[in-house]
Amino acid sequence: MESDIKKAEDAPPQKKVLIADRKALLRTFIMPENDAARETLLKYMEQILFGLHDFLKKNVGITEEKSIKELSVFFEETRISENPEKRLANVITDLIEDIAPHAVNVTSPYFIGHMTSAIPFFMVHLKTIVAALNQNVVKLETSKVVSVVEKQVLAKIHRLIFRKKETFYKKYVQDISTTLGCFVEGGTTANLTALWVARNAAFPPKNGFRGVEIEGLNAAYKAYRVDRSVILVSRLGHYSLKKSGGVLGIGNNNVIPINVDKNNRIDIDCLRQTLSEIKQEGNVKILAIIGIAGTTETGAVDPLKRLAEICAENKVHFHVDAAYGGPTLMSRKYRHLLDGIELADSVTIDGHKQFYMPMTCGMVYFKDPAFLNNIEYHANYVARRGSLDLGIKTLSGSREANSLILDSALKIMGSQGYALLIDHGIETAKQFAEEIERRDLFQLITTPELNVLTYRICPKPMGEALASGGHEQKMRINKELNTINRTVQRIQREAGHSFVSRTVLLKDNQPENEIVVMRCVIMNPLTDMRIINKILDEQEEIYKERDSNDPPA
Ligand SMILES: *Cc1c(COP(=O)(O)O)cnc(C)c1O
């Protein structure tokens, strides 16, 4: 595999045989004391920071044309070599020259398909510092001041969401017996944590029953005379919620999907209908109702205030999945889109999405600082009772100091800096939608609420036939359109100049109305209308070429 990155000139020539002995071990394990070695290591660091960055800047393509099949033949060796194979310098060169070009260039402004993409350059520096310090935030003994920083940054984001009074934060910011939230691996584990806590709160100890966490669901159902417990969320809920149903033992069948309205927000009437059916069934415990603040597929925000009212009426835990949309709260212009989030009992936010942090960082926040006590665990060597050990109330064990990255980023950017990113995304998505409406070949499927939009290729004659035709005809045309959209998206992705993703949406909540759509997420501040027009032009060209080779049946 060749690449156009110049070989590291300063890398020492590869010796024939490398040996793993104590001398080599010490050399690799400790910081070099002499100036020459220090110089070399600095060069490597420079190469990583700028070699990789220059490469990513130069190659706007998403991937080279080599297929995974062709690539995988280079990765079939399964033995670990006994002696060292390579020096650090050669490994770094390999990563930059052989791996990076075949990875996905998510930093390209032409990469508008997913919710994790370009990050500010300074994040690489922050991540490096976190790696160098190598603190383990599971306990104070391996993190000390970092645990205190974590409590502070948790309070900052809690305040962004719940906007409690200054006295509240004075009281809780460094309180040892409570916590305002916790850092976890990602949105999936954040959602799982919130629902785990909600489950335990729904089946607390009583009359000799010691609580669901200790005795399990079977005993809980007996103690509370419950046949099943359910979680309600819109049909567009993230699949991590179904996983949670599985992990928590309630069964993912009991994560009940509610239909959405024409704006892809949870349909409140359907929700009320389902609630009344559940009440009639009797002996059903509702663990949580979930509102989504930015659905993964269309970026729609559920009516959070109304959901909060319904939860209050029914005394049900209200969870908001703001894994994606949460940071919109930093935008003065658009934070109103998330009105009602402050009424949630728990909120999920991802750091690696709209906080633009490096992979991976999830967070979950609780309105009630004592709520996480429902999942308290202790051990004798870690997470001791009454200590500040952050590992007491979290699903994770050992974990990195993501709080240092988030806290530093908040200082570097300010909420106003983040707002510039958020506003750019939302406003560019709006212009993008207008452009789609201007072009005859395309049909806008979802108007962007946040910075996500979906559309599809739909040539005018087919659009007209769809509007006027009967059910059979509509089904047939949608099927044809699905094939066209799938094909164009694939060809564009394989060509490697740009990337939009695709998904399947249901029109009018009808399973037989599956429509394949292009899905765009505007996160990169360099993605502008000039680039978007180029991406659309390319899709038009691919469509025309495909059409002339392969006329639709
Ligand atoms: C991305 C996302 C998740 C899952 O987060 P991960 O970090 O990928 O685990 C959950 N919910 C929503 C709404 C998301 O967009």
Fold and architecture overview:
By secondary structure, this protein is of the alpha/beta class. It contains 16 helices and 11 strands. It has helices at 22-29, 35-58, 68-72, 88-99, 122-133, 145-162, 166-172, 187-202, 212-224, 239-247, 268-281, 304-314, 402-438, 460-468, 471-495, 529-549; strands at residues 181-184, 228-234, 255-258, 284-292, 317-321, 346-350, 362-366, 442-446, 452-457, 501-506, 514-521. The strands form 2 sheets. A 7-stranded mixed beta sheet has the order 1-7-6-5-4-2-3, with helices on both faces. It has a 4-stranded antiparallel beta sheet with strand order 8-9-11-10. A hairpin with a 7-residue loop joins strand 10 and strand 11. It is globular, with a radius of gyration of 26 Å. Residues 1-10 have low confidence and may be disordered. Pyridoxal-5'-phosphate (PLP) binds next to helix 8.
